[in-house]
Structures are given as C-alpha cells and as structure tokens.
Write a structure and sequence with these properties.
single chain; 272 residues; alpha/beta; 8-stranded mixed sheet; 13 helices
C-alpha cells in the first residue's frame, strides 16, 4: 500500500466576510506553484462560492457523490493543470449544511481514493459554529482560523475556538490576521485573541502570519482569478507566499507522522 503523505488543513472563521475563501484559494495556488499538488474542497456545503470566485460553472458537485455513482475524479475541477484541483459544493441544499455523521463518513469514504494524489487537502469551511463545520474542522490535521481586526471577528473566532476546544477536544489552532492596515495592527489583533484563549480556554494559538489590506485583492476578485496569478508582487500576495512557505515546512516536519494517518482518519472511521 502506498504511504499517505497528504496534510489536511481546515480553513475557518467565526464570521463571514473576513476573506477566508480568498486566503484558501491563494495559499493553495502558492503551494501548487511550489510543486505541491493540492485539492481544495469547498466545504461551505450549502452555500458554494469558490466556483463564483473562479468564474467556473461546474457540471457536478459533491451532492452528486452522495446521490449517484459519480466518481470523485469526475467531480474534481482543475483550477490549474497538473495538480491544483477543487471539489465544488452545492448551493441552496439544506441537507448538506446539516450533514449527519453517517453522511459525512459516506462522503469521505467516496472521496478517499482521491486524497492520496495530493500533498495538501484544504477544506474551505463555512463560517460560524454549524455542527458540520465543527465536525470537519475537528478531523483535519491542522486548523487555520482567519480573523480581521474587527471586534466582531475576534469575538466570533474566540467562540468558534471555544466550542471546538470544549466539545471536540481540539486545542491546537493557527491564526491568520487578514485585512490589517499595519504590522502593528496584525500583532495587536492576534494578541487580543490569544490573550482571551490563554485566560479562559488554557490554549495557546499560534500566529501563522498576517495578510495586509491590499486593493489588488478586490481587483483579482472582480477578474475571478487568484491574486497570486494576477498580482504576484502585491503586498497581500507576498504575505500569502510567506505563509505558504511556513505550511510547506510544517508538512515536511510532519511527514513521518502523515505516513501512518488518513487525512481525515477519525471521520472516515465513523460507521455509516
């Protein structure tokens, strides 16, 4: 049996509108350009938006995996040829938003043959503390929480981490501060969140990096292209590149452990 070396990463946030999907897409693009095949799953399962961000209209989505005999490879859509693919979600499908454990396990089992082809598996999760979001976040090997300097983003992100910690036993989180106007604001934002986590949850989140406020990003969104492709020298793109390098190093450090683990092992082992 081929050893698995896929690192699974959930990208999540306490509230919407913090740039989570853009960060997932552009970090994925960086890692792909760095020679790492990457599968990006749109796990906002009832409110898909990655396809809109990319200007793509997929013929099939993850609902087809559950409702038919469609093969995972037939569902995956290439963002770039040769190793950067995404799995589209569905829009306006309530049963996907509230997936039970049996349905989640079935979905993962059907996707399992696809995972081994990639170095990274990114789950772009919906915002908030929906049970489906929490379940998927708890099953990945790394969790990245996206926050902005807005007080509501900090309070909602703290609530998300609290629920994952108290109800799912998750105690390791990485944080990216997005849309800060300065490095000082990035640091202050992270420290406010980290201080609350230390005091009330007894956990120590790790600062993965900041992505500066950059007008090139909304320009890329309007063009429906990754920022890293249309403005690779922009400040936000350079920040994202630095974070991708850290993820690359983390995967290299974890390789001995990954060989014996399923990317979503605990979830895949649920009966259905």
């Amino acid at each position: 049996m081929t050893q698995n070396t896929t690192l699974s990463v959930s990208i999540l946030s306490g509230k919407g509108g913090v740039g989570k999907t853009n960060i997932a897409l552009n970090l994925g693009y960086c890692l792909y350009r760095g020679g790492h095949p990457l599968l990006l799953m749109d796990c906002d399962l009832g409110l898909a938006n990655l396809d809109v961000l990319l200007g793509i209209a997929p013929d099939r989505n993850m609902q087809d995996l559950l409702d038919s005999d469609a093969a995972p490879r037939d569902i995956a859509v290439p963002i770039e040829q040769g190793g950067f693919d995404f799995l589209p979600a569905a829009s306006g499908v309530p049963e996907l938003v509230e997936m039970d454990g049996d349905m989640r396990a079935l979905l993962v089992r059907k996707l399992e043959p696809l995972f081994a082809a990639y170095d990274f598996l990114f789950l772009d999760l919906g915002a908030g503390i929906n049970p489906t979001v929490l379940a998927f976040a708890a099953m990945t090997q790394l969790r990245i929480v996206i926050v902005t300097p807005e007080p509501t983003s900090l309070t909602d992100s703290y609530a998300l981490m609290k629920v994952l910690s108290t109800q799912h036993g998750v105690r390791d989180f990485f944080v990216i501060v997005n849309q800060a106007e300065s490095r000082k604001e990035e640091t202050q934002t992270f420290e406010r969140l980290a201080a609350a986590c230390r005091k009330f949850l007894d956990i120590e989140p790790q600062f993965l990096g900041g992505v500066r406020l950059d007008k090139a990003l909304p320009d890329a969104v309007r063009k429906q292209k990754p920022l890293m492709r249309v403005a690779p020298q922009s400040p936000a793109a350079q920040d994202l590149f630095s974070i991708a390098v850290k993820l690359q190093r983390m995967r290299s450090a974890l390789l001995p452990e990954l060989a014996d683990k399923h990317p979503l092992r605990a979830l895949a082992e649920e009966p259905y």
